[in-house]
């Protein structure tokens, strides 16, 4: 199981928090149903390595300086700096390994939908699905095979249930992905081409002018 060392932080002033980030640490908070909220920090590089090892919904053994305990946690929330691309804050949630919990799991589409090649539009509607399971049974992602989807076909949450060690919290009727019929192009161009009253009038006026000159 992935392991990570955390440091207690008692000074919560913004200036101190900023310095932590400059020094290569990420401010974080550890909490849980039976765990008192505790401010900590973790080394940024080590955290990213640990997260890659454990996965977004994986369990991490978190050790806090002077605590003497092993906290089995999940990353409940991440805050990122979009411009700099780094993590600015982490919520570590201590889990009860014997109790089920809810988690959002990413949906990955697998394969190519034949309906797309026929001109249909692939619409990915659910990017995450909520599941309930024991902490060790929460999947890293849910793969949805779209290789049989033609135009007008869809896959709903109910189609994904197949006796796994977790259950979905979403409504069965929710659509995960669909191939929509192509949108008809605007036929207004043809109407505009046939409706040119000014040009017709100008032509007629020109013809009348020619007749007058002949007379």
Which terms would index this structure?
215 residues, 40% strand, Ribosomal Protein L25, Chain P, 6-stranded mixed barrel, 13 strands, 5 helices
Sequence of strands across the biggest β-sheet = 1-3-2-6-5-4
Distance between the termini: 103 Å
Into which percentage range does the β-strand content fall? 35-45%
Largest sheet: 6 strands, mixed, barrel
Detail the poorly predicted runs: 186-191, 203-210
- What is the typical, i.e. mean, pLDDT? 87
Number of domains: 2
| Class inferred from helices and paired strands | alpha+beta
Number of helices: 5
C-alpha Rg (nearest Å): 30 Å
CATH superfamily of the largest domain: Ribosomal Protein L25, Chain P
Helix/strand order: EHEEHEEEEHEEEEEEHH
Strand tally: 13
What CATH architecture of the largest domain do you see? Beta Barrel
Q: CATH fold name of the largest domain, please?
A: Ribosomal Protein L25, Chain P
Gross morphology is elongated
Tell me the name of the CATH class of the largest domain.
Mainly Beta
Domain Large ribosomal subunit protein bL25 L25: 4-92
Subunit structure: Part of the 50S ribosomal subunit; part of the 5S rRNA/L5/L18/L25 subcomplex. Contacts the 5S rRNA. Binds to the 5S rRNA independently of L5 and L18.
Keywords: Ribonucleoprotein, Ribosomal protein, RNA-binding, rRNA-binding
Protein name: Large ribosomal subunit protein bL25
């Amino acid at each position: 199981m992935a392991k990570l060392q955390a440091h207690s932080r008692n000074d919560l002033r913004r200036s101190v928090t900023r310095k932590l980030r400059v020094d290569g640490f990420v401010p974080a908070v550890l909490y849980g149903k039976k765990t008192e909220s505790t401010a900590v920090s973790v080394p940024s590089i080590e955290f990213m390595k640990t997260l890659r090892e454990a996965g977004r919904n994986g369990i991490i053994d978190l050790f806090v300086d002077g605590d003497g305990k092993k906290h089995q946690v999940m990353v409940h929330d991440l805050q990122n700096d979009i411009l700099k691309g780094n993590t600015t804050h982490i919520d570590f949630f201590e889990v009860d390994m014997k109790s089920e919990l809810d988690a959002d799991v990413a949906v990955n589409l697998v394969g190519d939908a034949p309906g797309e090649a026929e001109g249909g539009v692939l619409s990915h509607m659910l990017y995450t699905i909520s599941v309930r399971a024991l902490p060790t049974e929460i999947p890293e992602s849910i793969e949805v095979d779209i290789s049989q989807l033609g135009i007008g076909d869809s896959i709903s949450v109910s189609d994904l249930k197949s006796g796994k060690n977790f259950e979905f919290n979403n409504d069965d009727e929710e659509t995960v992905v669909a191939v929509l019929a192509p949108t008809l192009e605007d036929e207004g161009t043809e109407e505009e081409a046939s409706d040119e009253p000014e040009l017709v009038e100008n032509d007629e006026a020109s013809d009348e002018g020619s007749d007058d000159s002949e007379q």
